[in-house]
Write a structure and sequence with these properties.
This protein is α/β, with parallel strands linked by helices. It is 42% helix and 21% strand.
Length: 315
């Protein structure tokens, strides 16, 4: 197994550049797979290139604006989901480099299989039945609870518009709470025999943790998908319209263009880093379900996968 600290390729880059070790910051969005990827990147950059890496939480708009500034406040986004934040990517394309597609994901709305069987639902349109909607109303306010994502997620905004497109806006209250809290409710609701509907995406550990059904939707149609985000127009909700399924998501790494001069030795890693959806699902399962420490998991995974690591290092 090759040594983890200062591989031959990394040492050559450092010696050849005569530059000091890089000091970078990785912006970390709130979802589990982004946290896992950030930990992997941090350990690789530090062990293989002697970099000093800080992990800083942030939302997509904050991370992209910081990367574009080139000041080093944030330099890397470990997991950019498209088309979710296409507008942000387009806005900063001159100063932020978007890497190749690492893996694909799927997005939609889920219920547990127990809920699907109990209520006889399989499609998002089944939720438009007022009698079905009543089953999701646990607080007695006359509307069912529907978790659309965490506050600040572009996907949560899209889900709100999609609810209206499917005729669900008057029947359900869109909830935006932390992802961990929302997914904890799945188990709570299941124990009580109560239904729960929520935004879901793959790869994600939740599909290994629970038996879930992603509700059927009309196939994605660009003509029926007009999504405007709040940072693009204050009247985004009124002007948006969405009434079909998400198209397959493409997930990328992004980094500040300033790194090409500030930390050129790391560019090969950022360009080659390409975890598979199975890798990401396993990372998140280990962290979120098994309770593994992100940093310890990253170190162990890197040590156990030298061939994959070599490819990411361009060896």
């Amino acid at each position: 197994m090759k040594p983890l600290i200062y591989s031959a390729a990394a040492a050559a880059l450092l010696i050849g550049s005569s530059a000091q070790a890089a000091d970078i910051t990785i912006g970390v969005p709130s979802w589990p797979s982004a946290k896992a990827g950030a930990a992997i990147l941090k350990n690789l950059a530090e062990r293989e290139f002697g970099a000093s890496v800080t992990l800083t939480p942030g939302t997509n708009p904050v991370i992209f604006a910081a990367m574009a500034s080139g000041k080093g406040d944030m330099d890397v986004h470990p997991e950019v989901w498209l088309p979710n934040i296409q507008g942000i990517v387009d806005e900063y394309q001159d100063n932020v480099v978007l890497g190749k597609t690492m893996f694909q994901g799927e997005q939609g709305d889920c219920v547990t299989k127990a809920t699907a069987d109990k209520l006889g639902i399989s499609s998002i349109t089944d939720l438009a039945n007022p009698e079905i909607a009543k089953q999701f109303d646990s607080d007695g306010d006359g509307k069912g609870e529907f978790w659309v994502g965490a506050t600040g997620w572009a996907s949560a905004n899209t889900e709100k518009v999609k609810m209206r497109g499917y005729g669900l806006a008057d029947l359900y209250e869109p909830e935006t709470i932390d992802e961990a809290l929302a997914y904890a409710r799945i188990g709570e609701k299941e124990k009580k025999g109560e239904p729960y509907v929520f935004y879901c995406y793959t790869p994600h550990h939740i599909f290994a943790q629970y038996d879930l059904v992603m509700l059927e939707e009309p196939a994605h149609d660009d003509a029926k998908w007009n999504m405007i985000q709040p940072d693009e127009d204050p009247q985004w909700y009124e002007k948006s319209s969405v009434s079909t399924a998400w198209k397959p998501a493409e997930i990328h790494l992004a980094y500040s263009k300033s790194l090409e001069e500030r930390a050129p030795e790391l560019i090969t890693l950022f360009e080659n880093y390409s975890p598979t959806s199975d890798m990401v699902a396993d990372w998140t399962y280990q962290i979120a379900v098994k309770g593994r420490d992100e940093n310890e998991l990253a170190q162990e995974w890197i040590a156990d996968h030298p061939d994959v690591v070599d490819k990411w290092l361009g060896l």
